[in-house]
Each structure stands twice: as structure tokens, then as C-alpha cells.
Amino acid sequence: MNKYEIMFIVKPDLEETVIKKEADSLKKVLTDKKVKMIEEKAMGQRELAYEIKKYKNGYYFLFVVEAPAEATAEFDRLARINENILRHLIVRVED
Q1: How many domains does the chain have?
Q2: Which of 58, 69, 71, 76 is 20–30 Å from 2 (CA)?
Q3: d(Cα 80, Cα 78) in Å, to the nearest integer?
């Protein structure tokens, strides 16, 4: 299994419960695939470097995981479909 950092940005105009629900649903995708969660961080609302879909702010989340490639591929697929996710990034970390 490889180590990955997964960061995603949720739309800022949603209610806090919906934002938490989105993060939890994406976390569940990973845990269902037997991923080892090393670190989970809600970084809060931050200003974006540039406008994305007419939003200037977003709620940032960071997961550091040990996962097989299939789990990150499924996360990527679902994050692309989800309209509440502005951007996501999956980076493999070298040991």
C-alpha cells in the first residue's frame, strides 16, 4: 500500500452540517476500502488563490492515508461527480 495526501475543497455557501456530511461521506468511501487513516484535518474556510466556479472561498479538508490505488481511484471518481466539491487533489507521498 502507498501513502497518499488527499486534499479537497467544499463549497462555502453550504450549511456546516452539509459540509461535515460531505467530508464524512468521502471519508467513508476510503474506510469502506480498508484504508488506514493516518491523519484527518479540517482546515476550515480559507480564501482561494483564484476564483473557482465563481467562489472566492472554500472549506479545506486534508486526509493522509495508506491505501491501495483502487481506493484512491474510487475517491477520485466520486469527488469528480460531487457538485459540492470545488477541487480535489490526490498526491502519492514518497517514504
Answers
A1: 1
A2: 58
A3: 5
Phi/psi at 10 (5° precision): -100, 145
Strands 55-67 and 2-10: antiparallel
How many residues does this entry show for the chain?
95
Phi, psi dihedrals of residue 34, rounded to the nearest 5°? 60, 40
| Mean pLDDT, residues 24-52 taken together | 93
What is the domain-level CATH number for residue 19? Answer: 3.30.70.60
Stretch 80-94: mean pLDDT: 94
pLDDT band at residue 95 under the 50/70/90 scheme? confident
83, amino acid identity: E
Report the predicted TM-score, pTM, of the whole model to 2 decimal places: 0.90
